[in-house]
Amino acid sequence: MESKPYIGITGPATVDEVTVVGNLFREAGYSNQSIHVPMIGILVSHKTLERQPTKNRRYPNYQLVPELLREASQFGIPMIHYNSRENDTLADQLGIILADSKDFCQGIQLNIVWPDLKKMKAVKRFFPSVKFVVQLSHSAMNNSTPSEIARRVREYEETANYTLIDPSGGKGREFDIEHSIAVYEALRNQVPQTTIGFAGGFTGANVEQRVLTLKQRLETEDFCIDAEGGLRDKITDEYGDDLLNLDKVKDYLRKATKGLK
Fold it and tell me: Could you report the per-residue pLDDT of 45-78, keeping only the tens digit for each?
């Protein structure tokens, strides 16, 4: 179930932000026809799905989500990044999102530690074209060897298209490149169908060198990268009390492109 690698920007919360991010992708030479396709990630939680208020500026009002996805679909892969602690009803939650999105949502990244595979399969039966991303957060990988992590991911190989090595979880933390490479190699060995990505503190200042290192060590550029927290300006130190900096997005895309060429 291999899919094209993407370069991702996660966290636009308004239509204007999505439009500018999409145009910055185009200026940098990315489209559905490029080797790496653009991915614009829209954050949704069970809380926002239930129309509850949140102070986290990265999460749009849920009523705007279909419009954000529609706008993102003009530029590449419109993807929901979803987190929820109500896992018993996960299939119902995802079904609501996909029904509301009017076919514009092409992928869902599950920011959930080892999400219920049965629930994912149930969603796939009704929405077979949706692409799932399994996020390997710090909690998912903690106290496990790369081989143990890969064996667990293998359980999802018929349902998920992507695996994202993401110990940062959108908080801008640096990722351990040696450990991430070890997990990548275990995944490539045990789950060859999955398309693998990396996230964790990517910025314009570090992405070029990181991508070059990954290309050299992995001997391929067939991997995804995704940036979120490193492209924002803090208002306070509270998580999510920050704003997307479009100049940082432009610099990140320019430097990522240099590294990927």
Answer: 999 999 999 999 999 999 999 999 999 999 999 9
Q: How far apart are CA 80 and CA 103, in angstroms?
A: 12
pLDDT band (50, 70, 90) for residue 173? low
Residue 20: burial class (beta carbons within 10 Å; 0-12, 13-18, 19+): middle
Alpha helices in the chain (DSSP H): 15-27, 46-49, 65-72, 90-100, 117-126, 138-141, 146-154, 177-190, 207-218, 246-260
Q: How far apart are CA 110 and CA 96, in angstroms?
A: 15
Whether the predicted pLDDT of 1 surpasses 50? no
**Which residue's entry shows tokens 């704003």?**
243
Q: Three-class SS of residue 244?
A: strand
Give the Cα separation of 106 and 6 in Å (integer).
13
Q: Cα–Cα distance between 181 and 44 in angstroms, integer?
A: 29
Domains of the chain by start residue, with CATH: 6-260 (3.20.20.70)
Work out the average pLDDT over 174-188.
Answer: 91
